[in-house]
Design brief:
single chain; 219 residues; alpha/beta; five-stranded parallel β-sheet; 10 helices; 59% helix; globular
Length: 219
């Protein structure tokens, strides 16, 4: 099933994203950090103050899981419940579609924050295979936060978020996956000099002040 999706994605006629990219390639910032590091909150702040569109890989997957008639809903649900990383073909298809739709509506919206991706080497390879020539990755915005702070934030969020993975059992699995799979990706980009690190254990306002300094410098 996953192979069939990848075949469909790969063999499509030149997509809108490809046609638009002939004029302006999407400019992408990968936003990474552990569960509860504040990625979503800070992305919302960035969108309010800068001309970025926020795409959360997790939100896109949860929306697809809930979409009536989704071919992959049950598969996505099982991966999320176990704190595992969803197959890359599904995630990239959702990200690519979201970028296409955004740029179709407004060609000036070509800057994207991709939150929670790439989460492992398979994600990165999949991105490079499908998107390397269609989008420019400017840098990785890394929200660095201790495990205990992340867990406490998620447990507090879980009281009102309704997210099935905001419980201690799922959190411990998610953090283990993050440490084993995502940290090496951050380290890889650090070697390329493409990581902007922010201490995310502080207040939202203080963290965003650092984020603004980074984005102002990049602009």
């Amino acid at each position: 099933m996953i192979g069939r999706l990848f075949s469909v994605v790969s063999q499509r006629a030149p997509s809108l994203l490809h046609r638009v990219s002939l004029m302006m390639k999407p400019q992408v910032v990968f936003v990474l950090g552990g569960p509860g590091a504040g990625k979503g909150t800070q992305c919302s702040n960035i969108v309010e103050n800068y001309s970025y569109t926020h795409l959360s890989a997790g939100d896109l997957l949860r929306a697809e899981r809930a979409r009536e008639g989704s071919e992959f809903g049950q598969l996505i649900a099982s991966y999320i419940k176990e704190g595992k990383i969803v197959p890359v073909e599904i995630t990239i298809n959702l990200l690519r579609k979201a970028m296409e739709e955004t740029m179709q509506k407004d060609e000036k919206k070509f800057r994207f924050l991709i939150d929670g991706f790439p989460r492992n080497e398979d994600n990165l390879q999949g991105w490079n295979n499908v998107m390397k020539d269609k989008a420019d990755v400017k840098f990785v915005l890394f929200f660095d936060c201790s495990t205990e702070v992340c867990i406490q934030r998620c447990l507090e969020r879980g009281k009102s978020s309704g997210r099935t993975d905001d419980n201690r059992e799922s959190l411990e699995k998610r953090i283990q996956t993050y440490q084993q799979s995502t940290r090496p990706i951050i380290e890889l980009y650090e070697k390329l000099g493409k990581v902007c690190r922010v201490d995310a254990s502080r207040s939202v306002e203080v963290v965003f002040a650092d984020v603004k300094a980074i984005l102002d410098k990049e602009d």
